[in-house]
Amino acid sequence: MKGILVGAAIGYVLGAKAGRERYDQIVRLWHRFTANPTVRKTAAQAKDKAFEAAVQAKDLATDAAEKAAEKAPWRHQEETNGKIATPPVTPRK
């Protein structure tokens, strides 16, 4: 956390010294960069791959949670009133 704050402070100081003209120049370069068709295509591909990875991660997490729930000790206890008996919740310290 300290590293982020130090980095932000350094960026602020350097930005303040560079002035408004340099800031405007950087903004223009950024807009030109992001308007480039190759950059836009690559960004869209990266977004699609990230979405696919997120879906796969969600599926893997769901499967792992289901397997863990099946192995849970209270799953093998007898049912009480039609419901599976669960262990009492103990508060965390």
List keywords for this structure.
93 residues, two-stranded antiparallel ribbon, 2 strands, YtxH-like protein
Kindly summarize this structure in a few lines.
This protein has 93 residues and is mainly α.
Q: What is the C-alpha radius of gyration, as a whole number of Å?
A: 26 Å
N-to-C order of helices and strands: HHEE
Question: Could you tell me how far the N terminus lies from the C terminus, measured between alpha carbons in angstroms?
Answer: 25 Å
Shape: elongated
Number of helices: 2
Strand order, main sheet: write it out.
Answer: 1-2
3D structure, described in words:
This is YtxH-like protein. Residues 62-81 have a biased composition (Basic and acidic residues). It comes from Lentzea flaviverrucosa. Residues 62-93 are annotated as: Disordered. With 93 residues, the chain is mainly alpha-helical. Helix content is 74%, strand content 4%. The protein contains two helices and two strands; from the N terminus they run ααββ. The chain has a two-stranded antiparallel ribbon. The radius of gyration is 26 Å and the shape is elongated. The two termini are 25 Å apart.
